[in-house]
Amino acid sequence: MSSRSAYAAAADELASRVLRALRGTEDAGGAALVTPHLDSAPGASGSPDFPDSLDSPGSLAALAAVRVIGADTFTPHVLTGAPFHASDAAAVARAFEAFPVPGHGPSAPPDERTAAWRDWATAQLLARTRGYAGNPVPATLPETRDDLTDTTDWQRWSVRMAQLAPLATPALEGPVRDAARDAALPLSRGLTRSVLRRDFPTAVRLLRWLALLRHDGIALPLEPEPVLDHIRLLGGAGPRTALDLAVAAHLLNGRTEDVRNEPSEAPA
Amino acid sequence: MTSSAPAPASAPVAIPAPVTAAARAMADRALSWLHAHRALGALPPGTTEELTDPDGVYKPLGETTLAASIILRDGMAGPGQLAAAQSLMDFNWLQLRKGDLLYERQLRHTLMTDPLEMYAHFVRCGYRHADMDRLLDHRVRLRSVHSSELLPNRRLAVANAARITGLDHGEDFEALARTTWLGATPEPWAINWITAYAMTHTVFHLTDWGGRPEGLPADLTAYVRTWLPVWIDIWREVRQWDLVAELLIVGACLSEPYCRPEDWEAMAALQHEDGLMPADGDPVDEDPVRRYKEHHHTTVVTAVAGSIALARAARAR
């Protein structure tokens, strides 16, 4: 397995875990999420080649997955009130220690600024975890001399907002959510474009933003429910897309029973 | 204007200068190409009203006539171009034996709509055929004609042709509009290529090719303005230039036109030096007959798009 696909598989594994927790089907609902994810990584523990579990490639991929899933790791806690364990918080902190936070000054390239926003979101939620006080990441706003409010190039802008979908959660306020609130039309155009291009992972991430706007009582130029059903039927069964769908469905319906209909297993 | 003259309800929206520059180049070059290649669009000798292959030459001939008639109606072209458009109208009128062929076809096939639709392009520029007028006046009063089962956007095409020809029997265009795909203001992400064409034609006929933008109901205008940028984007990406050119017409027909300079300049840049507009991203054939057959429609659409955008820009000044 190439390291790239090992990293993608690890992100899928964690997304599946989060999704099961969101549906309430994880063992003893409310159990730890991140710790078992790290423990289940190939070569994570007891491997003679890697006495320090952090050094195995599987463990590195599992830690990287925590950074990739980021704020979405907290989704069951945010949406259903399931407890977020202090041990999980410590595991998220370890992921930050293993992979440095990228630069995010005003001159940083857009990808790095996007990563900085995602890290900020994770750090915000980490800082709120009850019983945990070891947050290694400053939860300060990234430099915001950013183009988040300029939606002239709605195509590129909406792709960026899709990358920022972990911030589309009722638990976080801030400039990204503010930008989305003023941009129901560019988000809807981006969503429409993504569906027509059959880019369903991007489409469902934009749908999350629209679902959050609906949750906030903002009028939308299109009906989000049929798009949700359409992507659920056509969008494939990847765990990360399924997790985004589950979040969107939860925000639109305020119920979890609809969430349970989505595919649950990561591809082998 | 006296001081008591009513002010317009809202100031017309200016079309950006780069769009008018692109539109002029597109319309002029496309018309030149249509005129230069008109012999390739001639009906085969001995063609009768039966038209064994109506889509082969007859339909494209109607499309060229539409483009020339819009250019003459809008009057935005220079004197040479207007003369070329008039010359194309005359050429095509003679092809149809000064309307006799249309008359004979309508006489033999009461329920067919294409003779009326093609005749309307000529009527727009003052051509008339007395027997055809009498026949159409009879035909339009038949319940059978009104009850023919057409797709809603086709029904609009026929209704608009009847209106141009002076046979408007109080057709309820608003009600007809509601029966189209566009009239349902449907999910914009559930559109396909053929439905997009249907949508463009709904706009063309309701607005009479930009001549009466208010003919598109306000809510449908708002719907089109909301989603047209997405549709232009995705069909540009897959290089469906024929459909993109039609979508540019749609934007130019709106009461508040949507004409984005980048779209118009990109299309103008695709046009060949001789005026041909490629139908899609595939290579253009060298053979003159195949070139004409494959790219004639897109070049017609390009001429129409350019003319309408120029007319709308002039009206906004």
Structural notes for this entry:
The complex is a heterodimer of chains A (268) and B (317). With 268 residues, chain A is mostly helical. Chain A has helices at 3-23, 34-39, 57-69, 75-80, 86-98, 110-127, 154-163, 175-181, 184-196, 200-215, 224-234, 239-253. Mean pLDDT of chain A is 85; it is low at 255-268. Chain B has one domain (17-311): Glycosyltransferase (Alpha/alpha barrel), CATH 1.50.10. Chain B is globular, with a radius of gyration of 19 Å. Residues 1-9 of chain B have low confidence and may be disordered. In chain B, helix 1 (17-36) packs across helix 3 and helix 1 packs antiparallel against helix 14 (288-316). Chain B contains 14 helices and no strands. The A-B interface holds A 154-155, 185, 188-189, 191-193, 195-197, 221-223, 226-227, 230 and B 187-191, 226-227, 229-230, 233-234, 237. Chain A: Residues 33-53 are annotated as: Disordered.
User: Based on the structure given, which CATH architecture of chain B is correct?
Assistant: Alpha/alpha barrel
Strand residue content of chain B: under 5%
Order of helices and strands of chain B: HHHHHHHHHHHHHH
Low-pLDDT runs of 5+ residues of chain B are: 1-9
Average residue pLDDT of chain B: 94
Q: What's the helix count of chain B?
A: 14
**Strands of chain B, count:** 0
Order of helices and strands of chain A: HHHHHHHHHHHH
The N- and C-terminal alpha carbons of chain B lie at a distance of 16 Å
Q: Helix count of chain A?
A: 12
How many distinct beta strands of chain A? Answer: 0
Q: Can you tell me the CATH class of chain B?
A: Mainly Alpha
How many whole angstroms does the radius of gyration of chain A measure?
Answer: 18 Å
**Share of helix among residues of chain B?**
55-70%
Total individual domains of chain B: 1
Major sheet size, sense and barrel closure of chain B: none
* Overall 3D shape of chain B: globular
Largest sheet of chain A: none
Backbone structural class of chain A: mainly alpha
Region (Disordered) (chain A): 33-53
